[in-house]
Amino acid sequence: MDWNVPKFPLDTLSDEGLDWLTDHGAWLTRAVSRSVSDWIDLLTTALIAVPPWIFIGLAAFATYRIGGRRIGLLTLFGLLFLWNLRLWQATVETLVLVSLSTLTALVIGIPVGIWFALSRRAWRIFSPLLDMMQTLPSFVYLIPALPFFGLGAVSACFATIVFSVPPVIRLTALGIRNVPAELVEASDAFGGSTTQKLFKVQLPLALPTIMAGVNQTMMLALSMVVIAAMIGAGGLGRAVWQSIQRLEAGAGFEAGLGIVILAVILDRSTQALAARARPHGSA
């Protein structure tokens, strides 16, 4: 049986909406693109200028202080191995993209999560949007980035921020909402203002949950930066993408292993920070 109901023109409406936003917001996107591109170039150039053995030593010491000997040694030998594989520049490029994207996602996500925790109406309205953002395929986020910012690292950052921000919003709101009601009531009983209650009671107790959101955001940012190599992002993702195009299995395995090493280092480090943020005596 033929389907005679007219098709809803979602594709046409989407194209027209993107065209309108591109035409009327080009001045803003160009300014943002230049600024972000300058920051990416500056940070990448600065980090690559540092001798790798110094960078690796500092990173190993920092992770040792954060999470102990095991994480410090993992960082030391993992980064030394990436240097030995001649993947150091790609590793630095990936770290810059992940760091900038994660930091921006946290700057956006934590205040929004606090708002959602304090406003039930806002949570009810926007919670379905977060659900949709977390269920959309990651490739979809590359589509709107291209008309606004074109090919390159800026589009990769934009797509990565949008893709990775939902976990920190959700877990920030969840952490604040799960603060025991008795402690909130005690704060009210002692005359604490809303701001004092938030910064002295709710946020400190919610910090382990927020740190779990930071961990998830960073891992999603790393995965998206790799996928964004298809639109011109650099780093280890580009090495993987080039190896697929050239059917170079060995080079692709090396770059993929580099991503795994980097992911494990970042994951263990943020988990250690979350454990340190957990109140003493909690499970």
UniProtKB/TrEMBL annotation:
Keywords from the UniProt entry: Cell membrane, Membrane, Transmembrane, Transmembrane helix, Transport
Coiled-coil ranges from the UniProt annotation: none
CDD domains named among the record's database cross-references: TM_PBP2
Entry's Gene Ontology cellular component terms: ATP-binding cassette (ABC) transporter complex
Main location: membrane
Subcellular localization: Cell membrane
Domain ABC transmembrane type-1: 91-270
Gene Ontology biological process terms, A to Z: choline transport; glycine betaine transport
Membrane topology recorded in Swiss-Prot or TrEMBL: Multi-pass membrane protein
Gene3D superfamilies linked to this entry: MetI-like
Classification via PANTHER family: GLYCINE BETAINE/PROLINE BETAINE TRANSPORT SYSTEM PERMEASE PROTEIN PROW, GLYCINE BETAINE_PROLINE BETAINE TRANSPORT SYSTEM PERMEASE PROTEIN PROW
Homology family: Belongs to the binding-protein-dependent transport system permease family.
Identification of the protein by name: ABC transporter permease
